[in-house]
Model the fold of this input.
Amino acid sequence: MPDYPFNFGGDVSTQSFRGVYRENVAVLVLRQDGRLLFGKCADDDHEWQFPQGGVDAGETRREAMFRELREETGIRPTAVRVTAVRSGYQYTFPNGRLKKGVFCGQRQTYFLCALLKPDSVINLNAMDPPEFEEIEWVLPSEFPIQRTPEFKHVVYRRVMQDFFRVTLP
Done:
């Protein structure tokens, strides 16, 4: 069995096993003009989301956040300053889907990071293949929740409220 950074607390071979929530980090990159980096995924679904990804075994959430940010956007740790961190966000994948055959959803920690450098530090081709095919900068008050998967709406509404005091429809 792979070495995952959590305890299953049960036998995955039983019929009652419904999966576990993967530890995940997400990054709110905030420009000086108050806009957030928002990316369109380059995969088949073309969903929009913030830079995010799983926490690897032996890795802290902060380390995972910097790794994901660098992999998905090319932004290095010296280009941002962490200004806030909040945990306790969770979503479940729809239709009983298990990611990697084990994960029924994600348990997320969000990091708010001020971008200290110009947009030119962003390199969507930092990974091969790239995570995002395009990005936009959006104001929290104009966050386009309709472009995101419906099963993530509850989390995005809470994140916008918790970090920016914005109530989304």
Remarks:
- The chain has one domain: 20-139.
